[in-house]
Specification:
Keywords: Membrane, Transmembrane, Transmembrane helix. The protein is mostly helical. It has one domain. Helices cover about 60% and strands about 0% of the residues. The chain has a two-stranded antiparallel sheet. The radius of gyration is 23 Å and the shape is globular. The termini are far apart.
């Protein structure tokens, strides 16, 4: 075995273990099933849509809930969802091109680096975002949309993933609405299940990418470039783009999208990094001989200090992106009061 464990390495194991289980606990408390006290209705944030306001007036949604329309609609009033689709598709295509360039130059061994993990995660986010935005454009133009008599805005605000009663619903408003067909109900229910799953996954990817790209780019430009010499991470056009474009495209997406950014989902970012560190431990235990990042090496007595520093860095890295989102929602409504819609 290439991995030799010293007494101080158990401190590193403890740091990662504490972060891992702490993040899981936060997600269990904040992201898990919550019970509404008013209606005694069980539902999960993102996984299950909030009750329809028409039948459950006054029922609050879980913290961090996102509606499916937020996945593809813009925070700019009147901006066609096709613009967000275009941003996500172009971002996905360009990042895929640079990832392919990286693999062709250095082969698949590049995936031992956290940079590649994060870059791939951003690509997956934009891939799902492109699909969801395309679906949103389909809904926008679908014949199922309300007519353009002022009801379209209400549709966009409505949760596509909201729960619908499993019984046949009959409208009582002046007898103008008939009985909704059962087949239509099943079709809508299937759409909502897909929207709920993609909404949950897309929101996780978005907030995980946000923290991960800040950590990756800061470590690269502030620590690795000035002080460390790593063959694969030397400064050139490719490495410069890999540690710049990920942030540029995600910030561009943030400036247009209407996704929320609750603080408790920093836990996904912590889990992401913990998984990478555990992956490094596993491959070294299986015989991998060198460390992609010297500060992760366990054979030095300073390892606990490095691990502790990296753990603490997650807070300001995620906090920095959170501040950018808060600034968008605080400054833009003042500068563009008639064009910006607060998320």
């Amino acid at each position: 075995m290439a991995l030799v464990v010293y007494w101080y390495d158990f401190i590193c194991f403890g740091i990662v273990g504490t972060a891992l289980f702490g993040a899981l606990y936060v997600l269990w408390r904040r992201e898990g099933a919550g019970q509404c006290q008013d209606k005694k209705t069980m539902y999960e944030s993102l996984l299950v849509g909030r009750p329809d306001s028409e039948f459950y007036a006054g029922v609050s949604t879980p913290r961090g809930h996102v509606s499916s329309s937020q996945l593809w609609s813009s925070c700019w009033r009147g901006l066609h969802p096709g613009y967000l689709l275009g941003i996500r598709f172009v971002s996905f295509s360009v990042l895929c091109g640079f990832s392919a360039w990286d693999i062709l130059d250095y082969d698949a061994s590049v995936f031992v680096y956290y940079t590649e993990w994060t870059f791939t995660l951003v690509i997956v986010y934009f891939a799902i975002g492109t699909i969801v935005s395309a679906y949103g454009c389909f809904l926008y133009y679908s014949n199922k949309l309300p007519s353009d008599n002022g009801e379209r805005g209400e549709f966009v605000k409505r949760d596509v993933e909201e729960s619908i009663s499993t019984y046949t619903v009959t409208s009582k408003a002046k007898g103008s609405m008939g009985t909704i067909k059962l087949q239509s109900h099943y079709d809508q229910e299937a759409i909502q299940e897909r929207a709920g799953f993609w909404g949950y996954l897309m929101q996780i990817l978005y907030q995980t990418c946000a923290g991960a790209i800040v950590l990756t780019d800061i470590v690269f430009w502030v620590i690795i470039v000035p002080f460390l010499s790593i063959a694969h991470l030397k400064v050139n056009l490719l490495m410069g783009c890999l540690h710049t474009l990920n942030a540029v495209f995600l910030l561009l997406d943030t400036s247009v999208n209407s996704l929320p950014f609750p603080w408790f989902r920093v836990s996904y970012f912590v889990l992401w990094t913990c998984c990478y560190v555990i992956f490094q431990w596993v491959i070294h235990a299986m015989g991998f001989s060198w460390w992609p990042y010297p500060f992760l090496e366990l054979s030095t007595p300073r390892a606990p200090l490095w691990y502790c520093s990296l753990a603490v860095m997650h807070i300001p890295c995620y906090g920095l992106y959170s501040l950018l989102v808060k600034a968008k929602n605080s400054i833009f409504p003042i500068l563009f009061p008639h064009a910006f819609v607060r998320c």
